């Protein structure tokens, strides 16, 4: 199939020709490296000349139509690879009773009427941390992770917890589930250790959550209601209204709140900041928008920055029944059951069929077709909360006078940003603070 593409389409940058010249066992490793270093030019060639790229380990799709097909056809493309990492958590299931019941429960307890207070909380917490930072900060640990962890503690109800513990439990679960699959072996040095770390983190998180639930149960019995997601879930379980939502299921879902909040929020906020700092003219516009009372205009800058620099550039699925992708085109390809399929949604967000003038940074683009929070059955449960947190974290940074990046992002060999240093004029910030 590779030769057919080469003979027919004459790729611009020659990525496909270079791939064909490599031994089969080296092709995915090379493609994966390009995804980190030359992503947009690679994706452009694949969309134009080989939108369904079959490699020995997996199949890659890059066009909007195929990416949406993969993510929306949950009966054809499953999340089977989640199962070994997440056990019986509803996210590791597709069209099951547990999935629908528990996702519905979680959507109910994550009250969207509280989005305004969510944003206010993030703004206040971030502003305080930045003001106390004296003009310089590692924005990963000192702000984005710190605010996300505090949010879990104070808004989701994870009280009497150690922030360092919450970070470890979240970090290793995210790492193993989404960055330690078999196809990640080309970039992961010690996958076995990551599994061990995730298992240990899960055990320790479970111990903490059991104690939390016991404590909340005792509080409810004496009339104390904290009115947070942890308490709401326990009240529902204790009511007996749902036969199959016992305290063990409460613990499962509380763990998901932590794991789905910290690294996802931090990573996205950092990526948006990086993209904005690399675009001086756009940065000026974003800073001006950040000053306005209504954040809606500003939010567009963050979301568009994430289109160029997403924290999740792809989603992976497993083909469950023989199907065809790119149907009706010259690139039509039959996918066999058992095939791992990677939908490169970063590429899909530069497909002109869904994103007019994709190379233009346009903060007014509609969100509908973006993949920042996924699409289909497994769209992010907390997308509305995450959107508020991510955009407000970035906004608080851009409100700092003279803020600038003084380092590149350091990933320290892993999949997440670990350090990114910023500086600003602290004396000017202090003056602004006293004028308020």
Automatic annotation (TrEMBL):
One of its GO terms (molecular function) is oxidoreductase activity, acting on paired donors, with incorporation or reduction of molecular oxygen. It comes from the Bacteria. The keyword Transport does not apply. InterPro entries: Cyt_P450, Cyt_P450_B, Cyt_P450_CS, Cyt_P450_sf. PROSITE patterns: CYTOCHROME_P450. Pfam families: p450 (PF00067). Keywords: Heme, Iron, Metal-binding, Monooxygenase, Oxidoreductase. PANTHER family: CYTOCHROME P450 YJIB-RELATED, P450, PUTATIVE (EUROFUNG)-RELATED. Belongs to the cytochrome P450 family. This is Cytochrome P450. It comes from Adonisia turfae CCMR0081.
